[in-house]
Amino acid sequence: MLLPRLQPQLRASLASIGRAAAAGSSQGCLNEAFGQLSIRAASPVLTFVRHASHAQQGAVNKAKDGPGKRLGAKKSGEQYVIPGNIIFRQRGTHWFPGENCAMGRDHTIYATASGYVKYYKDPEKHPKRQYIGVVFERNQVLPLPRNSVRRRRLGMVATKMELPPVEETTVRTDLVLEGDASTGVTVKQTKKKERKGEEGRNLQLRPGYMYREANWEIGRAAERAKVKVREFKPRDRWTAWRKTTIRKAKNAEKKGLGRRR
Amino acid sequence: MPTCQKAARPLVRSLRDAQSSCQSVRAIRAFTSSARSNNEAAVESTRPTPVFDPATVTSIKGEKALMKSGIFPIGSRRRRAALKSSDNIPFEQLPYQCFQEARKVLQADREEKLQAIQKERLRISNLMAQDPSNISGGEKQKQIRLESMRRHLEYLKIQADINDPLIKKRFEDGEGDMNKPIYRYLADRKWRKYQRLVIVQRINQLGIVPDCLPHFEPTADVRLAFRKRSVLPGEFVDSRVSEVPARLKVQVFDKGERLVSVVVIDSDVPVVERDNFTSRCHYLATNIPLSPTQTSLPLSQATETQLVHPWMPPFAQKGSPYHRYSVFVLQQEPGKTLDPAELREKIQRDGFSLRSFVDKYHVKPIGVSIFRSLWDEGTAGVMHRAGIEGADIEFKRKKIEPLKPKQKARGWEARHSGPKYSWLRR
């Protein structure tokens, strides 16, 4: 494609060379002519031609209509609903949750109280939004008048609290029988020996779901057990050395025992 | 570092002593930097206990000692450290030319504002002296003009002082005199920047506005505390903590003394018969004097002429949803007192409605503080001590009947539902 376009220019330049040669007819003239030779392009931009083609997008290729998603109202206005009932399925928020309603992860509106569905607009809350609400009585209206007391429902029944019976200690391992058949048998529980410093601990159910003391009480355990620790002195190398030797001796002794076994 | 400090300490001390002697009236300059023997001896013999200055204390130990004695250190630790090392030269003597020029500009502005204040006062007095028949619009127009002039006067008073660095410092140190308009203005601005936003948010979130009152714009700062525990707006408070009457700290930002009423309402009292909620008055006192400088308002200190309903400890029965307790401060009409004996007859605790109280007695709500309560281990004891019945009642959710009846089992399930296959069903 390029060659035929170049042809006339090449021809012209060659003609000029021929003319020069005719005039000078020497080697130097020929060189000069070659120096003058220049190929000028007809235009700097290459033009391409678009041919008719087939559209790839849009409706041309017979757009497939997927399966229906069963969106829309599941409960109509003034229909009775109970908590959890789905009222409206939608893509995006065509409807917003109003009184006693909530919105799910996929913008589904569902009821949070039992009552009657109301579809309404509340220009004071938002000028454009449309809401779905649930009222307790069928004749009630939404939206509520401005600044009026909210309608609420307890939804609870009062029952007598059943107190858990006071727990008896039912530990059977440390029981001691006293007396004989004539005097009557008494069962006494030997007091379990508590570890030193743990006497009279007040164990309560704490946030970690375990019966334990408060942290500050645990921190005071050593104090209660009257454990005396010699105060640590940073530069007391003599005590440190003594401790180290004792520890090393102990370890050596342990190792020796292990070997014998 | 400690070693070198230790080594340098006597030198530093002697230098300081020398400095102090220089500053004394008998300014004798010592040729040696070491301390004189008599000076040294005096220091060692007395050994005064360290007294911490709240403006310059930086050590944690000093801060704790101060706080124990009831004085709180001023400002941040960084600021106190800066103050400690600074020479504390007053502003007038600071050797910065640009700074002094700027001060002159501010002073000139203040003078201008003071003159404007005088002029405005004169104009007000002139207008007041005028006969309303001479003014176009008559008496009403006169009052409107007076009102707007007074507002402008207040504005000028604030503008006169607002750029004063010393006033700003005094306010930040908490030494501001609340009788002066500028400090009230600064306190109000500070309150509106955070505390008011929080309380307004709680009012909306917890539905105080449609439930207790139709409209409410708080204009006074109300801080709530039980004994030592201060309560943030909307916080859950243990029933044992709230057994005692609350302490209020009410800061009003407008001038003058006024009488207020204090109401504590529980707006979530369950009513099983009506399947609804009602409200209850837990405390009501009236005719309590309040002013910008008189902020403390302990509810337990109400006298016989003030108290209508004494403190009833907040309680929430087991299982009931949280109870909102709102402590309202209501400003009475100027110069009018309410009769507690009459109120005692007319106002019942149960079914108390703040809306009707506000309408009937023409009180204006100015501030609120909110806390919440739930059943806890101490509630039964609190109710027993207060002589309240119903500690053994537990609220349980009412069962809601499903819309569709349960379908009968079919197929495999029906075949395996008999007693023969009970082991299948756990």
Q: Can you walk through the features of this model?
A:
The complex is a heterodimer of chains A (261) and B (426). With 261 residues, chain A is α+β, with helices and mostly antiparallel strands. In chain A, helix 1 (2-24) runs antiparallel to helix 2 (27-36). Chain A has 5 helices and 13 strands. In chain A, a hairpin with a 7-residue loop joins strand 10 (175-178) and strand 11. The longest helix of chain A is centred in the last third of the chain and has 24 residues, at 237-260. Among the domains of chain A are: 2-36, no CATH class; 72-135, RNA polymerase II/Efflux pump adaptor protein, barrel-sandwich hybrid domain (OB fold (Dihydrolipoamide Acetyltransferase, E2P)). By secondary structure, chain B is an alpha+beta fold. Chain B folds into 3 domains: 18-88, no CATH class; 97-190, no CATH class; 217-386, Phosphatidylethanolamine-binding Protein (Alpha-Beta Complex). In chain B, 40% of the residues lie in helices and 18% in strands. Chain B is built from 14 helices and 11 strands. Chain B has a 6-stranded mixed sheet. Chain B has a 4-stranded antiparallel sheet with strand order 2-1-4-7, with no helix packed on it. The termini of chain B are far apart. Mean pLDDT of chain B is 88; it is low at 17-30 and 37-43. Strand 9 (156-160) of chain A pairs antiparallel with strand 11 of chain B.
CATH topology name of the largest domain in chain B:
Phosphatidylethanolamine-binding Protein
Mean pLDDT of chain B comes to: 88
Category by helix and strand content of chain A? alpha+beta
Distance between the termini of chain B: 74 Å
Strand percentage of chain A: 15-25%
Major sheet: arrangement of strands of chain A? 1-3-6-5
Radius of gyration from the alpha-carbon trace of chain B, in angstroms:
33 Å
Protein name (chain B): Large ribosomal subunit protein mL38
Biased composition (Basic and acidic residues) (chain B): 404-416
Keywords (chain B): Mitochondrion
Region (Disordered) (chain B): 404-426
